[in-house]
Write a structure and sequence with these properties.
Order of helices and strands: EEHEEHHEEHEEH
CATH architecture: Alpha-Beta Complex
CATH topology: 2-enoyl-CoA Hydratase, Chain A, domain 1
Largest sheet: 5 strands, mixed
Strand content: 15-25%
Radius of gyration: 15 Å
Shape: globular
Helix content: 25-40%
Strand order of the largest sheet: 1-2-3-5-7
CATH class: Alpha Beta
Number of helices: 5
Distance between the termini: 34 Å
Mean pLDDT: 86
CATH superfamily: 2-enoyl-CoA Hydratase, Chain A, domain 1
């Protein structure tokens, strides 16, 4: 099985790459857990000065892998991985940078709102479909987006 979260260190930089191109980088609970672990380990290592999130060409992340999350919704095991990751984003003590190309949907956009700096290619599309799906935006998105993008930019998401 391919590792869908690749963690690489280059000097003082920790790169966390979402690597599931066949599913446009849709995130599973296991992927959330690995990113949480990478953030915690990077924060604990004084040699690491910054976390960098990357996707693959054309897809930063298409959001949650709904099939994986249906296991929890229908009474399966687990369920705290997303919360743990969102808390890791909020608690990290080191700067976070993202490089985005292509789609960034749902958590793909939310993650970027938590970064200190985001670089996006011209073909990047940020989208938060929460309201369209009857869901409450995650992880402070409804607070962070207007602060970062202004009201018009946030409402356009």
């Amino acid at each position: 099985m391919t590792d869908h979260i690749l963690v690489e260190r280059q000097g003082a930089i920790q790169i966390i790459r979402i690597n599931r191109p066949d599913k446009k980088n849709a995130l599973t609970r296991a992927m959330y857990a690995k990113m949480s672990k990478a953030l915690a380990e990077g924060d604990a290592d004084p040699a690491i000065r910054v976390h960098v999130f990357l996707g693959v060409p054309g897809a930063f992340s298409s959001g949650n892998d709904l099939a994986d999350f249906m296991v929890v919704a229908t009474g399966g095991e687990g369920g705290t991985e997303v919360w743990d990751f969102l808390m890791a984003l909020a608690r990290t003590e080191k700067p976070m940078i993202s490089g985005v190309d292509g789609i960034a949907v749902g958590i793909g956009t939310t993650l970027n709102l938590h970064c200190d700096l985001t670089f996006a290619t011209p073909r990047t599309l940020f989208r938060t479909p929460f309201v369209d799906l009857g869901l409450v935006p995650e992880a402070g998105s409804s607070l962070l987006a207007p602060q970062i993008l202004g009201r018009q930019g946030a409402f356009a998401l």
